[in-house]
Design brief:
This protein is an alpha/beta fold. It contains 13 helices and ten strands. β5, α8 and β6 form a beta-alpha-beta unit.
């Protein structure tokens, strides 16, 4: 196939060089018999490209007759050859594109239990890279043609189309997929994609991106299992780096360990840093007491004191203080317990 593709490219190159060479020789020949450059150039172009508006000067000498006949025979032949090579190039390019798309669709049709990534923006690029690193089967859906082309150039299975279309979702194998991640930077589109995907596959695991905090509830009502707010995550990460630098380095070191993050994810476990707020229930509680209260929802693996001291694998008798950063490992459904322990206690209003 590569040999076929090289042929029209080579023909185009040779045809263009040949046509330019004949044109330059024709211009030089007309100028050698006394024509100026403008008249010679005009005559060569109208003759080579078979326009034939008429001679700018009389062709009334044997030399001019020979030059003109040679230009007609050689120049027109070159243009015909160049035109044929150009048609061949575009036809073969379209043929290869059609064959490539058909082969890619065949590969997509063979997928089962795969992941569908809606959007190949900044977040979609990183997500696709992580999925490929974990050897997971996935398909990218991208409405922008340039981004879709970039995804294919990077070796990803990609369908150029609007992910809000049920036809495109079916083409991506939504009924056979295990999960769908819609990471488009448009909350309305993410809500619509979530609704469509949930209707087509009730068992699908859906993770949706939200730009605004108010969109989270809409995505959850639309059928998303989890909602990711990149702005909030970024702000929390910056806070961790500023307030708990040691804890942040601890987590980064674990994440760089071979397969660590993938293993945690497979077991439904996550790492997180929380702060023991003043007047929260966690303040002055021991590690053992907090873990008993959590009932297995999480375990404490490190404590970062406000004064800078760091305790990795703290003893059960370690007491949590105000403002301490607590690194814990636990299950995704721990949010309510974390709020009750580490957030300030709600004050009751005065009774009427």
């Amino acid at each position: 196939m590569s040999g076929l593709l090289d042929s029209p490219v080579r023909n185009l190159r040779y045809g263009a060089l040949y046509t330019i060479a004949i044109s330059l020789i024709g211009i030089a020949a007309y100028m050698s018999v006394g024509w100026n450059f403008r008249d010679a150039l005009y005559m060569v172009i109208t003759t080579v490209y078979t326009v034939g508006y008429g001679e700018v000067r009389p062709i009334n000498t044997p030399a001019l007759n020979v030059i003109t006949l040679g230009l007609i025979l050689l120049g027109c032949t070159g243009v015909i050859f160049l035109t044929g090579a150009l048609v061949q190039f575009f036809a073969l390019s379209q043929f290869n594109k059609a064959i490539g798309l058909k082969r890619m669709q065949t590969q997509i049709d063979q997928l089962k239990g795969h992941v569908i990534v809606c959007g190949f923006g900044a977040l979609g690029v990183v997500l696709s890279r992580s999925l490929r690193a974990s050897s997971a089967g996935f398909v990218v859906l991208e409405a922008d043609e340039a981004r879709a082309t970039e995804a294919r150039l990077q070796g990803y299975l990609c369908i150029h189309g609007d992910a809000t279309s049920e036809k495109i979702l079916h083409a991506a194998g939504v009924t056979r997929a295990h999960a769908l991640a819609t990471v488009i930077s448009n909350d309305a589109l993410n809500v619509f994609i979530t609704l469509s995907a949930r209707a087509l596959n009730p068992d699908l695991s859906i993770v949706a991106r939200g730009e605004l905090a108010s969109t989270e509830s809409k995505l959850l009502h639309a059928g998303a299992d989890k909602v990711v707010l990149p702005t909030n995550i970024g702000a929390e990460r910056i806070a961790e780096l500023v307030l708990y630098d040691e804890s942040a380095r601890f987590i980064e070191g674990l994440e760089r360990s071979h397969g660590f993050q993938r293993v945690l994810h497979n077991f439904g476990i996550e790492l997180e840093v929380v702060t023991a707020a003043p007047q929260s229930d966690a303040v002055r509680m021991t590690v053992a007491a907090i873990e008993r209260h959590a009932k297995g929802a999480f375990f404490i693996v490190q404590i970062n004191r406000r004064d800078g001291d760091v305790f990795t694998a703290p003893p059960d008798t370690t007491v949590i203080g105000e403002g301490d950063g607590v690194v814990l490992i636990g299950r995704p459904n721990r949010a309510a317990i974390l709020t009750s322990l580490f957030e300030p206690r709600q004050r009751l209003g005065p009774r009427g």
